[in-house]
Amino acid sequence: MKLSIERAALLRSLNHVQSVVERRNTIPILANVLLKADDGMLTLTTTDMDLEINESVAADVSSDGTTTAPAHTLHDIVRKLPDGSDVELELNAEGTQMTVKAGRSQFKLSCLPTEDFPQIGAGDLPSSIAVPAADLRALIDRTRFAMSTEETRYYLNGIYFHPADQEGVAVLRAVATDGHRLARFEMPLPDGAADMPSVIIPRKTIGELRKLIDEAADTIQIELSEAKIRFVFDHIVLTSKLIDGTFPDYQRVIPEGNDKIVEVDPKLFTSAIDRVSTISDGKSRAVKVALNGKQMTISASSAESGSATEELEVNGEIDIEIGFNAKYLLDITSQIEGEGCRLTLADPASPTIIQDNSDPSSLYVIMPLRV
Amino acid sequence: MKAKAEQIPLDFEGRSALGREDYLIGPSNQDAVGWIDRWPDWPGPVLVLNGPAASGKTHLAAVWRDKTGAEIIKPEMLLSKTADQIAGAGETLILDGIDPWLSDREAETTLFHLYNIFKEEQRTFLVTMRMAPSHADFVIADLASRMRAAPVASIHAPDDILLASVLIKLFSDRQLSVGNEVIKYILPRMERSFAAARDIVSRADKVALSQKRGISVPLLRQVMAQMQEY
Fold it and tell me: For residue A180, which residues of chain B lie inside 8 Å, CB to CB?
């Protein structure tokens, strides 16, 4: 294998694929990137056995071939090479060492045989849908903050994508929850998605996918089965296993009988919570929201730091005092782009719904703190 | 504001698996399972399935329903419907949890007529109750004699092996995998009942979700200490 490639193009591809590779690996080959030079293209593949990214980039290939080289090391080398340089990759005759050359720099990297490299991306997936990149971005951005990071609840460690019916309209819905709050976002159901299986996409896949979307074309092709999902971009294919678990019946935790409604300016609300929560201590970051007539008082107190209060004017007249984790409130209010944030409450021990007045496609549920 | 605020979790209740393969069998309930499996070879028109709260009577009745296609009759219908109307609901019937309706003359009269209809037509129905018929206070002597003569499939307090399996099943219904050390910690410290197992698992699930922790021995220590305070 011998090829020459522009440093910027190689770095861009390595940036995409290297983040799949875990820093610590018990299986040595998983630390490597699979390099395949063929027909004027260099294809780079990395995997952690659950997720695979495969990217092709144009290169001046003088001799076809394949090998695997340490992904993070190769990425670090290419990152440090001078901008505008050309990089030459050449595998020795024994297939054990690859030389990386640029200008006066030369590196020799140990390689592992390509036959040992696991392939999880192969195989046909029965369902196929095309989703505009902007919609997929919104499905992720509006919900990802609510994903659980607690490993025991493996079935909450991702976003649940599924077709649903919203008052007679077919939608593609994304839902995430960590058991303390829940985020739901929906878009019109794309063609061909009515029969798609309901799937839970793992957290790491969501993170990698989100990084790639910004550089994607207008539309992203999604192929999926009960066990795997594949996202096809221009020259990038991301294939991931899905979470083998049952997402909870989330509809039952979205309250329908809450009757205390109040509207607040989301920007003022967000800044006030942020300021007041400076005082709240502990993991819970507790703030108390007291609504009294047209006034909202946000307060926090801490044995060590002192106390804080801030008042806001609201639309609607209700009386209630309820505690929340400030971080959870901020995560939600920072998603609200419109001018009105609507809170629908019941009592201090029940779920509260938060919605963007101008965006019916998103809905958030937050559970209170007992303060 | 409390020094340590407590996060209330979303109420995701686990779904119970109620199939025959999900029903766990041990020495305490194998006789009852034997009676269910023996149908239609029952000696009379009624089988009484008896056992304490949360011992699995409804689950075993659901297993029998899957086998027979029986209709489930709410026991309060003994007051609102006639025996003929109830008998017309299905070829085989389940009356789940009749204890509160005993000692009510009207309800017992309907049940007595229902018994006679099923005996006459050689049909079968299943009654579940917490109390054994021999200890129940019937007001109609003819019903008392028939119910006390009926075969009784009893579910007794569970042994350790069954209780351990039930705990694992209850955690598994909630998609929670637990280590042996957790089960070993719970078993000698819990009340010997299915209801206690259900309460412990439900409470442990809620506390773990609230505190974003796994199901561990320290968590169970906290949960069981809290339960003793109530």
Answer: 7, 9-10, 209-210, 212
Judged against a pLDDT cut of 50, whether residue B175 lies above it is answered with yes
Architecture of domain A127-252: Roll (3.10)
Whole-angstrom Cα Rg for chain A = 25
Q: Give how far A213 is from chain B: nearest CA, Å.
A: 31
Q: What is the tens place of the pLDDT at every residue in B194-205?
A: 778 888 999 999
Q: Quick one: average pLDDT of B157-182?
A: 89
Q: Testing the interface with B: which of A153, A154, A289 to mutate, by most B Cβ within 10 A?
A: A153
Average pLDDT over residues A273-302: 91
pLDDT range class, residue B2, cuts 50, 70, 90: very low
The per-residue DSSP string of A52-108 comes to EEEEEEE-EEEE-EEEEEEHHHHHHHHHHSPTT-EEEEEE-TTSSEEEEEETTEEEE
Question: How many beta-carbon pairs below 8 A join chains A and B?
Answer: 80
B213 touches chain A (CB under 8 A): yes
**CB < 8 Å to A370, chain B:** 2, 5-8
Interface check A248 vs B, CB under 8 A:
yes
Least CB–CB distance from A284: residue in B7, B10, B177: B7
Same fold, A2-116 and A127-252: yes
DSSP codes joined into one string, B25-81? --TTTHHHHHHHHHTT--SSSEEEEE-STTSSHHHHHHHHHHHH-PEEE-TTHHHHS
pLDDT at B15 over 80: no
Residue A155: list chain B partners with CB under 8 A. 175
Strand, helix or coil for residue A206: helix
Whether the pLDDT of residue B17 is over 70: the answer is no
The DSSP element (H or E) to which A316 belongs, if any, is: strand A306-325
**Which one is the CATH code of A255-366: 3.10.150.10, 3.10.560.10, 3.40.50.1010, 3.40.50.300?**
3.10.150.10
The kind and range of the H/E element at A183 are: strand A181-188
> What are the pLDDT digits (tens) for A94-144?
999 999 999 999 999 999 999 999 988 888 899 999 999 999 999 999 999
Alpha carbon distance A201, B158 (integer Å) = 40
Burial string for A243-261 (b: 16+ CB within 10 Å, else e) reads beeebbebeebbeeebebe
Output the CATH code of domain B160-229.
Answer: 1.10.8
On whether any CB of chain B is under 8 Å from the CB of A243, the answer is: no
Contacts of B30 (CB under 8 A, 6+ apart): none
The complex scores an ipTM of: 0.88
